[in-house]
Amino acid sequence: MSGSNSSVPPGSAPAAPEPVALTVHSLAGPELGQGGAADGSRTRIGRLKMLLVLLVCASPVIASYFTYFVIRPEGRTNYSELILPTRSLPADLNLRTLEGTPVTARSLHGQWLLMAVGPAACDAACEKRLFMQRQLREMLGRERDRLDKVWIVTDEQPLTPQLREALGGAVPVTVLRADAAAVARWLAPEAGRRIDEHLYVVDPMGEWMMRAPVDPEPSRVKRDLDKVLRASSFWDKAGR
C-alpha cells in the first residue's frame, strides 16, 4: 500500500489523469482530379489500340488495292472501269428473296460478287447478261468458287417459270429483290446508260469496285476478274 502512495506528497490530493490524445492520419490515395485524368488517359489509349487493331485487319485489303490501283507495271490496262473510291454495300437496300423473306446486306459479304441489276421482265439483253454472268464464272476455272452470281430485281413483278428454271442449275444465281432507288444510290451506270445495262463487281468486303462495259467482250472481262482475284488471293479465300 505504501508503495502506491509514495509519489504523492503528504497532505496533497492526487493529480487528475491526463486526457488521452488521438491522432488521425489520412490514408494515401489519388485525388479526384488525378483520377479523372487517369480515366481519360486510359480511354485514349483504349481507342488508339482499337484503331491499331482495325488498321491491322484492313491492311491486307488496303495492300491489294494499292497494288492493283496504284502500282501498275507498264503496258498494264484494265478493260472494265475501276470505281474510285469504292462504294460500300448499303444496309438500306431492303433485300429480300423472291418469296419476300428479308435478307441482310451483311450476308452477301465474304465472296466476290458478279452482279446484274434490272426488272423482273427480263428482255433479250437481260438474258444475254445473265448468260454471260454464268459463263464468266465458269471461265475462272479453279478460282470460280471465290465468286458468286447475284441478280438484283428492282421491282415486284414475278419471274416467269422459264426464267426461274434457267437461273437454276448446279450453281444457281442468287436472286434478290431490292428497292430500285436504294440500288441507284449505290451502283451507277456510265454516262448516258441505264443501270441495268452493266455487270458490276463487288469485293468480299461489300465494296463495289468495278463495272463492266455495256455489251462487253467476255474474254477481256475475264482477264479483269483474274487480276482482282490474283491481287486478293493472299487475304480472300473461297467460301463465306
Distance between the termini: 100 Å
Assess the beta-strand content as a share of residues: 5-15%
Order of helices and strands: HEEHEHEHEEH
| Main β sheet profile | 6 strands, mixed
Number of strands: 6
CATH topology of the largest domain: Glutaredoxin
- Describe the global form: globular
User: What's the domain count?
Assistant: 2
Counting DSSP H or I runs of 4 or more residues, the number of helices is 5
What's the CATH architecture name of the largest domain? 3-Layer(aba) Sandwich
Determine the mean pLDDT: 81
Q: What are the low-pLDDT stretches, counting only 5+ consecutive residues below 50?
A: 1-8, 27-32
Strand order of the largest sheet: 1-6-5-2-3-4
The percentage helix is 25-40%
Radius of gyration: 36 Å
What structural category characterises the helix and strand content?
A: alpha/beta
CATH class of the largest domain: Alpha Beta
Considering the protein shown, what is the CATH homologous superfamily of the largest domain? Glutaredoxin
InterPro entries: Thioredoxin-like_sf (IPR036249)
Transmembrane segments: 51-71
Keywords: Membrane, Transmembrane, Transmembrane helix
